[in-house]
């Protein structure tokens, strides 16, 4: 299950530093405020997870972070580069996978990944084609798609398509990987492989930033977690810090903290009491 992907194999380690910054970002669609003022930073080599209910503002935030949506107010900085003022430079540093990644069904998995590599790198073609081929082979092997390399994407399951999208986002060796619901369509083994690859990327200095509904994933691999609700950051910190900060006699897990901070109508508490009465 170990990945053999050579992900930014940095020698001598690296120093944690603010690599990605979101400064005072807001997003409105007409009169609807999707995201209130967000301020956070992500360090180099850090894994950070955004958790929130459907409609909490996670996807809107990620789309602003990769330059697909322009903030109504505020700035996004990728290693000091303003993504709005210098989008081409900033976006070359990013690998992005949406919650429903668009793939070209009439291309093979290999052809699609090569196509995405050329889009990311533009005129900067890979100087060593053998090196590109080796990285592609490593990624397909790591995600257990090495036997599907030359098959058309139209025959792939949703989980396989998700893995192709992840490979395509990593092929140009991005400095930051941003993924919306990375394990949504994956079986347990593939989800575990993806988590291991995220850990390997972070160890080599790549910043990993993703959204998820799954508390176990956030708790097990994230250095820090952002809890977002109705477009606002409710709390931010390591899973341990969040549990300690919001703990009482009943809050013992990240899931407990999340429900306590976001369940303003107490639906969960009411439902739980009904279930207990019926036992």
Automatic annotation (TrEMBL):
This is ABC transporter ATP-binding protein. It holds the Pfam family ABC_tran. Gene3D superfamilies: P-loop containing nucleotide triphosphate hydrolases (3.40.50.300). One of its GO terms (molecular function) is ATP hydrolysis activity. InterPro entries: AAA+_ATPase, ABC_transporter-like_ATP-bd, ABC_Transporter_VariousFunc, P-loop_NTPase. Residues 20-255 form the ABC transporter domain. It comes from the Bacteria. Keywords: ATP-binding, Nucleotide-binding, Transport.
